[in-house]
Amino acid sequence: MLVIDFTHVLSGPTCTRMLADSGARVIHIERKTGDDTRHMGPYIADGSSEYFRICNAGKESIALDLKDPKDHALVEKMISKADVVVENFRPGVMTRLGFDPKEMVKKYPKLIFASISGFGQYGPWSKQAAYDTIVQALSGLMDSTGTPDGKPTRVGTSVSDVVAGIIGYSAITTALVARERTGKGTTVDVSMLDSTFSLMVQNLMLALGPHKVPHRIGNRHPDMYPFDTFDCQDQPIAICCGNDHLWNLLLNALGHPEWIEQANFKTNDLREQNWRDVKDAMQAVLKTKKAAEWDDILHEAGVPAGLVLNVDKTRRLDQIIDRGMVKTLDDGNEVLGTPMKYGTWNSYGLQKDSPKLDEDGDKIRKEFE
Amino acid sequence: MLVIDFTHVLSGPTCTRMLADSGARVIHIERKTGDDTRHMGPYIADGSSEYFRICNAGKESIALDLKDPKDHALVEKMISKADVVVENFRPGVMTRLGFDPKEMVKKYPKLIFASISGFGQYGPWSKQAAYDTIVQALSGLMDSTGTPDGKPTRVGTSVSDVVAGIIGYSAITTALVARERTGKGTTVDVSMLDSTFSLMVQNLMLALGPHKVPHRIGNRHPDMYPFDTFDCQDQPIAICCGNDHLWNLLLNALGHPEWIEQANFKTNDLREQNWRDVKDAMQAVLKTKKAAEWDDILHEAGVPAGLVLNVDKTRRLDQIIDRGMVKTLDDGNEVLGTPMKYGTWNSYGLQKDSPKLDEDGDKIRKEFE
């Protein structure tokens, strides 16, 4: 599987990184000065960018000037032999560079040519610039996140970029399955706005079904209580009890079995109505011990709970390590692993570090010229 | 493409809904009382659940008792003819029901048997219960979201469920591509924790590269300013100027070209260091007009910006409507569309509403018995 990768920064490279993790040969075409993320931190001791590494591990690199006729001809040769092309320029840029997606698929009918962009290849907004923050704002995601008395809150990772990359990967693999049946390739058009909008399931079911306007409600569940985060002596913990059975187990674990009789806590509906009282009562007890102690007690009691962790703690969890979600490369550098695990073949992707700029250039020139 | 769908609630049905949108025949096996979401709101006028609809549009339904020998035999027959099985019970449940994933793939070597769970099919935490809120807490996502002086904040949609469904779909289509080459199926193992962890790219590049602990920083970008949300007269707007050129355009649009000379705003690094001052100065101007007015002015000036919208407004955007992201079914009910668009075939999925419980039961029994 040969992938020609014109992507840069985040949404596109996330998609092609997934292709590399699945065993495809990904040739990352960079401009002569390299992908922008090579010049963005954070950097490790040898001066290389971890931003570039995490997005480009397992790929090959060739540095080209797409406006130079010789390089242009080389790229056309590469595309003619490719299974998949991926790019995330603004709509129209590939056409200006002489590689119009529709034309390329017409010329090479088995080719899958995938474009990832802010708003998509068509529609009135298609030419506008988008950044993750703008898409989080427009999609409703930001407005849904935070407390009712606080402000709309950006998700603390570039989820709109990353999810567009994952949806791009999904659409490419779907097109590959279709190609096996029809022999035909296709263009693929994935946008950050569409992809982020497709995450908004709970909010959209309110807006599309009964035509209600959803509002942000902090960390709690809209219909169940206690299903929220709670302060302990040192830090918060998430506790999720969606029915009377779990509520009962929780009360025993907290040492307050008598609350089961309390009139305003009797049913889930009552606890939901009086959630502030339930939360205050629970936190008064939870604040007597550290979150990790409560986590042990609650798990022992069979109550669903989890610590609110910084990702620097998450990455050290046994479960994350055991499942190869932090991958140590041959040279000792670390990157994110793949969440796609299979029973019958290696699920841990390639072990090759991200390439140096033009690292594979000579080899690729010889191969395709 | 035949998919046997044992899923319930959210992560699993998101995956099989994507399979249905891509043209697969998805038979949703429900227990005799129906999927839990049939009994969860929000409901529309005819009493049906929009939660169930949004997750199950385009599927067929059969109601079965998997412990009844006759129904069990029927299901085995269905699996023997299927391309894909998807389930999201806790690890071990399918085995207890007599459909162990590994055994099924051994028996039907072309089968792809996908399991989606909270923590995965192996690892020390695999048997634990997980809910979206717990995974958002453990993954580092919640800790990364919100302001430094505020609390860890849950993302306002069940992103850990939905993304696990999307990753499940990605892994299944990958396995289908592999099957075309090898003739062999496989088990697939996707977890909510792995999937959510894979979103944490920016935070992980700090933690894995220079071994720094990332902290939440509100809505602003870690390295560029102004790249943040700003209050206007009525509501916030996102404005993203990552370089001096855009900063210059912004100052003209705000009517303060003289700020270009201001010592503490001179470079991106200075603006980042003095972001509080930049924000205060900008907001003093922005608060004189409504966000929609500024949105027009900024777009006119070529400054990347976007309104912070409630999803009930997002769903009415031209760009969302034009791209079929809200899909009106044959019966007039509305559901979420698909973000995967292709040039050469219908990208809008099926137009069939979610099935009534056991709607296709008789037909399916005749077909497979």
Automatic annotation (TrEMBL), chains A, B:
Segments traversing the membrane: none
Keyword Phosphoprotein: no
One Pfam family it belongs to: CoA_transf_3
Keyword vocabulary terms for this entry: Transferase
Entry annotated with the keyword Transport: no
Annotated protein name in UniProt: CoA:oxalate CoA-transferase
Organism: Lactobacillus kefiranofaciens
